[in-house]
Amino acid sequence: xxxxxxSSEGKTLSRRSDAPARKADPRKAPSSSRETPSRNPVxxxxxxxIRNLHQDSFQAQATSTRGLNAASGSGGTGRTPxxxxxxxxxxxxxxxxxxxxxxxxxPVPFKPGTPDLQYDxxxxxxxxxxxxxxxxxxxxxxxxxxxxxxxxxxxxxxxxDETLIYTNGILTDTAGQASSLQYLADLTGSATVGVRxxxxxxxxxxxxxxxxxxxxxxxxPASVALAETVLAELSQGKxxxxxxxxxxxxxxxxxxxxxxxxxxxxxxxxxxxxxxxDTMRQGYQDMKVETFGSAAHDYPAGPHYVHxxxxxxxxxxxxxxxxxxxxxxxxxxxxxAGGDKATVYFLNSPGNNPHSPxxxxxxxxxxxxxxxxxxxxxxxxxxxxxxxxxxxxxxxxVGVSERVATELSxxxxxxxxxxxxxxxxxxxxxxxxxxxxxxxxxxxxxxVKQLFQDAARGNPSKPEEGVYTLMRVLGRIADAxxxxxxxxxxxxxxxxxxxxxxxxxxxxxxxxxxxxxxAGF
Length: 521
Fold this sequence. Notes:
Strand 6, helix 5 and strand 7 (about 190-195) form a beta-alpha-beta unit. Helix 20 runs antiparallel to helix 21 (about 505-520). This protein has helices at about 50-55, 60-65, 70, 80-95, 175-190, 200-215, 220-235, 245-265, 265-270, 275-285, 315-320, 330-335, 365, 375, 390-395, 400-410, 420-435, 445-455, 465-480, 485-500, 505-520, and strands at about 5, 10-15, 110, 125-130, 135-140, 165, 190-195, 240-245, 290, 305-310, 340-345, 385. The chain is of the alpha/beta class. The strands form 2 sheets. It has a 10-stranded mixed β-sheet with strand order 3-5-4-7-6-8-9-10-11-12, with helices on both faces. The protein has a two-stranded antiparallel sheet with strand order 1-2. The protein has a domain at about 50-95 and about 120-390: Rossmann fold (3-Layer(aba) Sandwich).
């Protein structure tokens, strides 16, 4: 029997003489028959096409917003609300390829107390401050050139020639978006302008997010305004850098799907001449897109992307891109993130803003605090970057490939609980010894993946809890008295858990013993 030294405690473990005998488990099955459980099926979404862009898709939008007429100032009379009218006009300009910008755009000063839907799909700029020192927010029609929008500028002065175009998430009023635009400007040194994604209350915002997710061709006014802005800027050969948070990431994804469908069309289909289309296609490939806690679960290939996903934030982890992790391969996940030009950073934090209703989803205190400068982030294009708190580095340190370590650490954040640290250390010891005793041709990747998959099966409804149980069990081994081998010590620990009635822990130990015995321990 192999003698193994725990990397965390420096103890040599050998069999305890008082360990109870373990009965054979009739449920033992060949390793090849086991599969990773899945909580969420991989979701497919529809993208707009040239054909449905030329249908009157906004008739559905106008119908769906009829219940909001009173809030938007139409008094419930059935008249088309202003925000839907703007969206219809934007879509018509997109359909026709006539994206000439307004010659003399007239901004409207934001008035606190005005129903927020009045501003949905408008561009947001800064008017400086009024006589009392309060910020003045200017709202521009969506056919305004970005260069004609008076931007928010860094308090320390502009440090580069970029203008970031930021779309907000749900439950963010206009003043809140303006505050984020100023924060983003100060952080990046760039000028910033906004695309207004208005709020109509939690339930209505959530419902709109659901419609945007399931039916991207029934786009909301903010998505259409952003698509029009991107197409117009591309047609002029101007660089574009988009930023989206929460539902704003979903708005951005749907806008890019409109842009993508247009750029795949012919001059006859789009209304753009061949030379302009070539210019737009090249600019599209050069575009920069950043998302933070986004609700979108896929993005069209083309632009350079940097995504930030906090595993403790339910918006990107359950609704957005992170929701694909349990059932998607790393390659499929990367494709959904935008392909080999996308970098995805995974964070693991509960957040620290006591004033936020969801600190793990907070834009400024959490996501922007962890932002990497775009050029630096793009050096990792085509990669998923787990934060150190997720445990991938520890797996790679014992020979697990970067791909498998990333996949496992995202499915089961190994360092989420402090009590798992010693368990991960002990797992490293097991894997190191496995290298010496494994059958010829057997890989560390397969061994570790099978161990995690078996642990996940211990709690099918919450597979990550099964893995956490395994890590706690391994932590007990690290703290066990010396003079025992791996299997003997596990049997002793199993006896303790079984006596205490911890079924999941007992099952996790049984599977771990099977794995070790199959590996020759």
